[in-house]
Amino acid sequence: MVDMHRHLPQVGEPSLEQDWIIWFATSDTSEWNRMTEAPHNQLYRHGYGILPQSISHERLVEPDMITNLASILDTTLGNNPLGYVGEIGLDVRFENDISSETQFSLAYELMQIAKRRGRPTVIHHIGPMPRLERLLEEVQPSTPTIIHGYVKSVESARRLADLGATISLGPTVWTHKTKLSEHLAKLDVPFLLETDYPFVSASLHDAYGYDTLCSTHLHRISELMGRNIGEIEEQVYGQATLFTHW
Ligand SMILES: [Zn+2]
Questions:
Q1: Spacing, Cα 199 to ligand 1 middle (Å)
Q2: pTM (whole model) above 0.85
């Protein structure tokens, strides 16, 4: 099984399967220290990320905020060979707190660190597609670049693939009616699977434990795509294995 985007284990969560590919993400520098206590194994990867909404007011007024964060990230990746950059990104909902230009510059600089270090990036994106496309055009990623929680159109997924990014599908694709869920059978670019656990809707969280959520997710995606589970699993595992080696 593959989970390309989940967050750190919660207190009391049962131990994780050792033969799964799991990429843990963080979305705030305050979580980065906890990564050292995160489960370690050859197939797990550790993400160091910061979302626009996690930038505190105090930090926002620092003149060198972006340079400082980039330098902390660079050092952190240097200390953890299994570390990647994520989740970082663009979120239109928080543009009143952190301007779209600042969000863009921060994402750009952090992606440059990933590129220089030869590590992947996992991107969070809420908002219009052209901004994300411009970010990819400007960065020109040379390492795996994953758009997590993707729910936009099949056409946009093709454009992202042309720009060097790989989409990752979370449970929202089947829990909500999205542009993508209605046309998933037409998806003809490589994709990954993720849970974003424990940040799933309360009903999903209560209905399934982590392991069951992962298998249900695979099952529901295969139904929506009209392809058999084994075929989906093989494609996702192949892609994830490739990305997990750096
Ligand atoms: Zn997340």
A1: 7
A2: yes
